Amino acid sequence: MQYIVTGYDHTDEGAVQRRLNVRPHHLEHARAAKQAGNLISAAAMLNEKGDAVGSVMIMQFNTEEELEAWKSNEPYVTQGIWETVDVKTARVAEL
After folding, report:
1. Which of 14, 39, 50, 59 could cross-link 33 (Cys pair, CB 3.0–4.6 Å)?
2. How far apart are CA 61 and CA 58, in angstroms?
3. pLDDT, tens only, 38-51
4. CATH code, 30
5. Residue 17: inside a domain, yes or no?
6. Domain-located, residue 95
7. pLDDT at 95
């Protein structure tokens, strides 16, 4: 099953710096997911100043339990970077 995971960052004054501090751990986690075949694509959402304010990740897992296990270990979740996370079931087009 494929999923679009959209994480929206906190918006307080220190949010951007906290994200930058956690980013290396997030990227390491994403690389592991890519290597395991779970990460299809990802992007940062930017504000008008060019600062990252959230993330979109297209993921693939065999079960929702695997998705939840990934999410429970995602540094942007565990370190409180994402204020909210929206998950939608998806089907990625093969072009």
Report:
1. 39
2. 10
3. 999 999 999 999 99
4. 3.30.70.1060
5. yes
6. no
7. 86
